[in-house]
Design brief:
Length: about 650
């Protein structure tokens, strides 16, 4: 109807929009008008001159209360009456139409409705302004719908604002969980106007749901008490897992939540619940809950979505907290490793496969402070002042062979060696087994090398001293027994030759040689007349002779460097079958060195002159060894000795007393 009025007679004789008086007739009182539409007319002063009969049905006023008594701008009480009167005043002055002016009005029964007023000016035959013709329309239903939509939009805007604010909140983005959860609970309570808002977390074994934080709006406080046994509430947890959220207007009777009634809902007075599951990596991790007390509440779709979105925010907070925890653990681990890395006194460099320095510890920075920064440079350029890798480079070997490699290299300053370095290189392998780098440990061993050199010099001096002492003892023995002059030296010569065929350790061979040089030193205690007697000795005299191994051992027992020598000498008259002396040892109980010395002693003694007999010759001596192999003499030692003489042409160097 508004459109018809606006389009009907848009110009009069003076060119103003309006309706000529002759172009319409006043509505008949019997005309039916659409429900809620009231037709009206005013005179030129603005007083009602006509209203349709349905005005009483629509607004509760009679026609008599309108016609001739009330001004258009004053009839309906309204909170915008001044604005409406001002609008009408402007329109009346300009003779202009007004369309769909909406205002809230109060009716006689004190109820309120929303009124839409539309009017167009009316002119008489002379073109003079005669008043307005229009209608009042009840738009309460439309307005309520609009207001509801507006409320929905305002509520949605608040929800979006809260989500946007929480999404960038530092506590949430940085995983500061307690603070984040409290903010989320309070935001949920305020946005949905609920008494209680909480976040619950599921235990690792999914047996319990524990309250992390619950905000109570009435007391403006947080509590974190409450544990629910999941096995006691199967319907609730099944619904949360299956539907991801529960919107229960009547929570105490809803089949998904009523099992909570006696222990949780009723005691607190909770009537409506809106819960959403917190899912992390597809698994239920907890629940966000909005709890309404008082009269049951119907949840809007946007509110359901809001709680679900908050659950996603909580899930992100959980993830951020876990990430933060992992980052902190990683940072602590890195700090620990860096601390260990830097505390190691050896120099450590991490190199790329082409020997570029990736990182170093503090020791390397200290040693090569003049070359800082070290990272990014070739190791051989910085450490060795070279244009190319070292000839013996353990890092290159480690990279090539994928194994640990080590070398001792000179510590260079320009072209001058100032010390020694011990290098250990360990390859770094990626998941495919390819070398991604190498860790090089560097230890300054200059002091150790000096100490080793000093020790070596000391050992050499000690060895010479020992040699001299042994030679002196040997000479002392030979002075008392001129017939056996050179015997010990020749026995030592043969013993060493046998030992070398055995590939014995150098230290063992050296001890054997020294023992051979003094094996008869115990004869010092034997009277000279017994040693040099040409005839056969008696039993008592033989006992004295046979005691010389013990005497030699006693002589060397208290000499630190000669303890091994003493034992070799002590056993050199023992025999394989146990027939020897002084202990009667047999087989493997006899030292190998003593078994070698025994064979060498017999061969040299039988082939040389003795006071009690002439020299018997090498062949007789070798025959003795051969005949008693495996009885008196070690078979392997005997075999080596026989081979030396018969195949390799061994001869004693001082053989003037030896009969070939």
């Amino acid at each position: 109807m508004v459109t018809n009025m606006n389009d009907h007679g848009r110009a009069n004789a003076k060119g103003r929009p309006g309706i000529p008086r002759e172009s319409y007739s006043l509505p008949d009182s019997d005309i039916d008008h659409p429900q809620g539409d009231v037709i009206w007319e005013t005179d030129a002063s603005g007083f009602y001159s006509f209203v349709s009969h349905n005005v009483e049905d629509v607004f509760g006023y009679t026609t008599d209360e309108f016609v001739g008594k009330t001004h258009l701008g004053d009839f309906f009480p309204t909170n915008k009456s001044k604005e409406f009167r001002s609008l009408l005043s402007d329109r009346f002055a300009q003779r202009e139409p007004f369309v769909d002016f909406v205002t809230e009005v109060e009716l006689p029964d004190n109820s309120k409705k929303w009124l839409s007023s539309t009017g167009v000016p009316v002119f008489d035959d002379n073109g003079s302004f005669a008043g307005y013709h229009g209608m009042h329309v009840d738009v309460t239903h439309r307005k309520q719908k609009d207001l509801s939509s507006l409320k929905d939009e305002e509520r949605a805007k608040r929800q979006r604002a809260v989500i946007a604010e929480l999404a960038i909140d530092k506590a949430i983005t940085e995983g500061i969980l307690p603070e984040a959860i409290e903010k989320i609970c309070k935001s949920l309570s305020a946005t949905l106007s609920v008494e209680r808002a909480s976040v619950w977390v599921l235990s690792d074994d999914a047996s319990e749901l524990r309250c992390l934080s619950l905000y109570e709006a009435g007391s403006d406080r947080y509590v974190s008490e409450g544990v629910l046994d999941t096995s006691v509430f199967p319907a609730y947890f099944s619904a949360i897992r299956g539907e991801s959220r529960i919107y229960a207007s009547n929570a105490q009777s809803d089949p998904r939540t009523r099992e909570l009634k006696s222990c949780y809902l009723a005691p607190i007075g909770i009537t409506s619940m809106l819960d959403a599951g917190i899912f992390v990596e597809g698994e239920l991790a907890g629940v966000v809950s909005a709890e309404h007390t008082g009269k049951s509440r119907r949840w809007h779709t946007d509110e359901e979505g809001f709680v679900s979105t908050l659950a996603a925010v909580v899930a992100q907070a959980f993830t951020n907290a876990r990430r933060k925890k992992a980052e902190n653990a990683l940072r602590e681990s890195k700090n620990l490793l860096q601390g260990v890395f830097d505390s190691i006194q050896d120099g450590i460099s991490v190199l790329t496969p082409d020997l570029v320095i990736r990182s170093v510890n503090r020791s390397m920075e200290k040693w090569y402070s003049a070359k800082m920064p070290l990272v990014g440079k070739k190791c051989y350029e910085v450490y060795q002042h070279r244009d190319e890798p070292c000839t013996l480079c353990p890092s290159l070997e480690s990279i090539e062979k994928k194994t640990i490699s080590s070398h001792v290299v000179p510590l260079m300053d320009r072209q001058k060696r100032t010390g020694w370095l011990e290098l250990y290189s360990y390859p770094l392998l990626d998941s495919s087994g390819n070398v991604s780098g190498v860790v090089e440990f560097v230890r300054d061993i200059t002091d150790r090398k000096k100490a080793e050199e000093a020790l070596r010099d000391s050992v050499e001096r000690l060895a010479k001293t020992t040699e001299s002492a042994v030679q002196a003892l040997a000479s002392t023995t030979e002075l008392r027994d001129p017939y056996t002059a050179g015997h010990q030296r020749r026995v030592a010569e043969l013993s060493v030759a046998i030992a070398k065929r055995y590939n014995l350790d150098e230290a063992i061979t050296s001890n054997l040689r020294l023992a051979s040089l003094v094996h008869d030193v115990g004869k010092i205690q034997v009277p000279a007349e017994i040693l040099n007697r040409p005839g056969k000795l008696g039993n008592l005299e033989m006992d004295i002779i046979r005691d010389h191994p013990r005497a030699a051992r006693d002589l060397f027992r208290n000499v630190d460097f000669a303890s091994d020598i003493a034992e070799i000498v002590y056993q050199h008259h023992e025999r394989l079958d146990g027939s020897g002396y002084p202990q009667g040892l047999s087989g493997a109980d006899i030292l190998l060195e003593s078994r070698i010395l025994a064979v060498a002693d017999v061969v040299e003694a039988m082939s040389s002159h003795r006071p009690y007999r002439p020299a018997l010759g090498i062949e007789v001596a070798l025959a003795e060894i051969e005949e008693n192999t495996n009885k008196l003499y070690d078979p392997q030692v005997a075999k080596v000795c026989l081979k030396l003489f018969r195949e390799e042409g061994f001869q004693f160097s001082d053989d003037h007393q030896v009969i070939l």
